[in-house]
Design brief:
There is one protein chain. The longest helix has 35 residues. This protein has an 18-stranded mixed β-sheet that branches. The chain is globular and about 70 Å long. Helices cover 14% and strands 54% of the residues. It has a domain of 32 residues.
Amino acid sequence: MKKTNLIIFIVGLVLGILGMIGAFYYSVIDNQYESTQQPIEQTFDDTQIKNIDISLKRANLDIVSGDKLKLEGQSDSKAQNVKATTKGDRLALQLKGSKKSKTEININPFYLNRSTASYTLTVPQSQLNQLKINGKQATGEVRGISAEKVILDIEQAGFEVEESDIETFDGHVRWGSLDVSDTTLKQVKTSVNKGELSLEDVPADIPMTLNNQFGSTDVMFAAPLKKAYITTNNDSGEIDIEDLTNYKALQQNKSSNIEIHITNQYGTVTLMDK
């Protein structure tokens, strides 16, 4: 009986301590975090802007299509972490989060996986000339936009591009992950240092330049290749293209002006089709 009472006492003591930690977290630390959040809302002249350059650091950014060109969201610091400048048809945005993310308690049931600063950029449905994003220690999504060219350069970051219409896509993964899906593309150029790049439902027979070093590059074509010619330069990695439906026939397309060129050092590159 004494042993049972001791166990009950210890369990109750532990739960009590956790309860006090949780109460302190929500009443002090959580409130301190909330008090540093600064709402952001800016609109821009969408009749003039055709080129957008974004520098993103320690923050999340969602880019969506809409009626007006506007930036909304919340900074996670009282410091000025949003800078916007316009010149001619170009909009330059510097979006940052604070150096320190929110304090978290990784003990259930009090663990909350909160993000840092978060922004949403709405762009007009009309076609942009160029969208350029340089992301570091960041996350983001590009959805439903139309652009002649999109340049994504990420480091310690994760990005997704979905349901968009892009003539030329230029994606560079220094360290992180980049996923592109359900997007119309006419030309692709990518490089992966360390990380993962995934291209899904890619239109068949478009020019592509794939440069892979220590990471992985996976391409899934929406239909079998017919007109393209594939060239490869592999060091000590692995290039897997033999599962393409028309693999043998593609080797005869040497005169084709649609080239898919693959350079691989120590990683893996895989091409497949549906």
